[in-house]
Design a protein that fits this description.
Largest sheet: 3 strands, parallel
Structural class: alpha/beta
Helix content: 40-55%
Distance between the termini: 24 Å
Radius of gyration: 15 Å
Number of strands: 7
């Protein structure tokens, strides 16, 4: 996920421990994982000729991630959202310079997590009719954002 996200232009990666996370990292292992992930980001940035190496932040909870990340637009990719599409929100917020995306774990986002992110200004959006795996959903969302913001291609 980190390698591909860096290759397509993601600026910051915030690993978040969520209610339905399948993998739970112990504090001692989380630090080593973050170091490994940062090395993956560095290698991917070098390979894709990026001038800036994205930061892979330490594993944190959702409240911490919402506090630490500052975006003009915060999107919540939520599998239960069936009224608002990613495309329509992006078209309505063309002025947004920085866009954050919350992607849930394998078990999906809890309704409490969606409510918490919504209270912080997040907008729940659908990525389409299919339920996507976590690693796919992030890349689909990032690619759609690149496309809708005219940052894909030349």
């Amino acid at each position: 996920i980190i390698q591909k996200a860096v290759e397509i232009g993601v600026a910051d990666i915030f690993p978040v421990a969520m209610v339905h996370s399948v993998v739970v990292l112990e504090a001692a292992k989380a630090g080593k994982k973050t170091e490994r992930w940062q090395k993956i980001a560095e290698a991917a940035a070098k390979q894709s000729k990026r001038d800036v190496i994205p930061s892979v932040h330490p594993v944190m909870n959702l409240a911490q991630a919402l506090q630490e990340s500052a975006n003009d637009l915060l999107l919540i990719a939520y599998e239960s959202e069936n009224r608002v599409s990613l495309k329509e929100v992006l078209q309505a917020h063309k002025e947004a310079k920085s866009i954050g995306v919350i992607i849930g774990p394998e078990g999906g986002l809890s309704s409490e997590e969606v409510e918490e992110a919504s209270r912080q200004g997040g907008v729940a959006v659908s990525l389409g009719r299919r339920i996507l795996r976590t690693e796919t959903a992030g890349l689909v969302a990032a690619t759609a954002i690149l496309y809708e913001t005219d940052n894909l291609g030349l």
